[in-house]
Amino acid sequence: MESKSNDDDVTPQSPQDKEEKGNRDEADDSEQIITLNPPSPSPKKSNFNLGLKLGANGGRQDEDAKDTSETGAMVREAESEVMIIFELPDGSQTEESFKMGQSVEVLKSFVASEVGMPMEGQQLYLQDKLMFDPLSLMDFPEIVASRGEDVYIRVEGDLEGETRK
């Protein structure tokens, strides 16, 4: 049986072979460093496709439009808009468009910033029904049923001075 020299052989045959083997090992080590630590890819040439759409809406609009599930319908409803007309204590009005998924607290915040009425002093009424802070506009069947019509909300509380509107 014939014996072949193997590069992985640990015991070289001569001093010259030892030296060459040592040089090869050093060369192999440097090659391994290059192959083990390749330069990281630039962000423009990334091989990773995570399926992320980074638009202003997070890429949801196209997906939601195609989604016929109950969840998709709820998301579309929450994103739909309604015009709210606030009837202020002094008889004046102000209006703003809100998304159906926004909370009563967001409406109170708008009134506070628009007319200077503190949020904690406001009570919002839809017809004669008090609107509580944790609820969203979608929690009020009267608003959901309005579909494109303006919704009037009565604001009660202390309005200091004159309104800005």
From TrEMBL:
Ubiquitin-like domain sequence ranges: 82-140
Region annotated Disordered, chain positions: 1-76
PROSITE patterns attached to this UniProt entry: UBIQUITIN_2
Transmembrane segments: none
InterPro entries, A to Z: Ubiquitin-like_dom, Ubiquitin-like_domsf
Annotated Basic and acidic residues bias: 16-25, 60-69
Highest rank taxon of the organism: Eukaryota
Matching PANTHER family: UBIQUITIN-LIKE DOMAIN-CONTAINING PROTEIN
The protein, known as: Ubiquitin-like domain-containing protein
